[in-house]
Design a protein that fits this description.
Layout lengths: L2 H8 L1 E5 L15 H10 L4 E3 L5 E3 L2 E6 L5 E6 L13 H12 L3 H8 L1 E6 L4 E6 L6 H6 L11 H4 L16 E3 L9 E6 L23 E5 L4 H10 L4 E2 L7 H5 L4 E5 L5 E7 L9 H10 L2 H9 L6 E2 L25 H10 L6 E7 L3 H16 L3 E7 L1 H7 L13 E7 L27 H12 L3 H18 L3 E6 L2 E5 L2 E2 L13 E2 L2
Parallel strand pairs: 1-10, 1-11, 15-16, 15-17
Antiparallel strand pairs: 2-3, 4-5, 5-7, 6-7, 8-9, 9-10, 11-19, 12-19, 13-17, 13-18, 14-18, 20-21
């Protein structure tokens, strides 16, 4: 290319994300693709580092009263939104109220709060009825929804309705006029962003943007994405198909590695509100009959280094990992599943399976599930759709035959499943629970016990009981633990392993 074109190309990263950015409200929903884009546009008060420790981000300082009931936060000076307005305490208050209405940890804080209010333009306070020790983690965690800070006028949007204006204070601006859902999303460097001085680590520290523009190129066909990466048409592919990894590794211009050592947990999510999965034995039939190896091989192939069976809900290799109560997941018996299904009173009701075809994991899992349910004698209503539609449909509580659903597939980042604090999917608090709306006072009691634990031994005891009770109740069906690759061209440097793609401090040479 001419020299001037080389310079322009070096200032733009072309990225193939895991899915289409069909909507862009990081509070309304929990899809990782939305969270990943949102981390560029909106900043947070705190951010977890690679040890999952919350560090100050937009906050300059915090104070907590001696009784632990009042938290006072002071903002860093010079923070600006993308429209040029200063970030004020009232923006933080409105943003936290909207976030807390949708987030499990936020709901816990609301349940024991006295008041959340601005003291002045740079300071706000959150007063509680009883101490909440994990306040800073709640404000800095990486799982969806993150407590992103928006201008007050946007944050006042009903948390159950999508925002339509995308103004943040993060390192990149969202170029809404160039957004073509299903094709492209564009982000441009925010010149007035003030990075922290500390070294960047995951969502914490100095988010220095070394490129001027990031283009998300939507490529649902893996072969097309692989060819584009090999030809230099794109620079970074978030989740390459495992079958194509050997081809990519053979290309001297491409690097391939595990994207996140904490991996992911596959999820078969059932709707607890309607038949057949409103019946416990129907849910247990799935656990008894499913073979996690079928799901894992469908996704990652024959490389056993990329997956593990998972008789539980917590991330393998982490301090609270447990298999307590997980024997039913080791049965792998269609006959046992048929028996439990018959005992549930199943009467050939259609089972509406909403399966996204543009996600590697959900498509692979969905094919296995369709076969499994048919072997159990269930009437399968297989709805092949896209991930954006799945994200919208799974939020519907209408009956399956009226736009609702019986099951869908997803996955949970291993970083979200290390303990109950960030683990949205393990909650079983009915209408306030994640999609599927499981309701188990016993599971919720176990989670409360963990939050009150005074040491690691007490935490482990609580987690053992939680794992068993969540399996007995079948909050959801784990389909196994797996690792995923990411791939990028060698002229890209600074890529960091973690639960989402971190674009800050990533550079590109011509």
């Amino acid at each position: 290319m001419p020299a001037i074109s080389q310079g322009a190309a070096a200032k733009t990263i072309k990225f193939v994300p895991q899915a289409n950015l069909a909507n862009f409200d990081p509070i309304w929903g929990t899809q990782y693709v939305v969270r990943n884009a949102a981390a560029l546009v909106w900043d947070t008060l705190y951010g977890v580092n690679d040890k999952l420790e919350p560090q100050r981000q937009m906050v300059e300082s915090e104070e907590v009263s001696s009784d632990g009931l009042t938290w006072t936060f002071k903002l860093r000076s010079g923070l600006k939104f993308h429209d040029g307005a200063p970030v004020l305490a009232k923006d933080c208050v409105a943003s936290l109220k909207r976030w807390a209405a949708r987030d499990p940890m936020g709901l816990m804080i609301i349940a024991q709060q006295n008041e959340l209010s601005a003291v002045n333009d740079t300071t706000f306070k959150w007063s509680l009825k009883k101490p909440f020790a994990k306040m800073l983690f709640a404000l800095g965690k990486n799982n969806s929804p993150c407590s992103f800070i928006m201008p007050e006028r946007i944050a006042l949007t009903d948390p159950f309705k999508q925002i339509t204006e995308y103004i943040g204070s993060g390192p990149m601006k969202f170029v809404q006029k160039d957004w073509v859902p299903g094709a492209k999303a564009v982000f441009e460097k925010f010149a007035d962003y003030k990075p922290r001085e500390e070294k960047a680590s995951w969502l914490s520290g100095g988010k220095n943007m070394l490129v001027d523009r990031i283009e998300w190129i939507i490529m649902p066909d893996p072969a097309t994405a692989a060819a584009a990466l090999q030809n230099g048409e794109v620079d970074w592919w978030e989740l390459p198909l495992p079958d194509l990894v050997p081809v990519l590794k053979a290309n001297s211009n491409i690097l391939v590695d595990i994207g996140d050592p904490l991996g992911s947990i596959g999820s078969f999510r059932m709707n607890h509100l309607y038949p057949p999965f409103d019946k416990l034995k129907a849910r247990q039939a799935i656990l008894a009959a499913m073979n996690q190896e079928d799901y894992m091989r469908a996704l990652v192939g024959d490389d056993k280094n990329l997956w593990k069976p998972l008789p539980g809900f917590f991330t393998p290799g982490t301090p609270l990992y447990t298999e307590a109560g997980g024997d039913i997941l080791k049965m792998r018996s269609i006959e046992a599943g048929k028996k439990l299904l018959a005992e549930s009173g199943y009467n050939n009701e259609p089972v509406t399976c909403v399966v996204a075809q543009d996600q590697l994991a959900t498509k692979a899992f969905g094919d296995v599930t369709a076969d499994l349910l048919k072997k159990l004698g269930m009437n399968v209503d297989f709805v092949a759709t896209d991930w954006g539609t799945t994200g919208a449909r799974r939020a519907q509580k209408t009956p399956p035959g009226q736009g609702g659903w019986n099951m869908f597939h997803t996955w949970h980042s291993g970083a979200d499943c290390i303990n109950p604090a960030p683990y949205t999917a393990i909650r079983a608090n009915g209408d306030k629970a994640w999609f599927g709306w499981p309701n188990s006072p016993e599971v919720e009691g176990d989670i409360a016990t963990w939050f009150e634990a005074k040491n690691l031994a007490e935490e482990k005891s609580a987690i053992d009981k939680l794992n068993k009770d969540a399996i007995d109740f079948v909050v959801y069906a784990p389909t196994g633990f797996f690792l995923s690759y990411t791939a990028w061209r060698k002229n890209i440097s600074g890529i960091v392993k973690g639960p989402l793609p971190f674009f800050w401090n990533v550079s590109k040479s011509a």
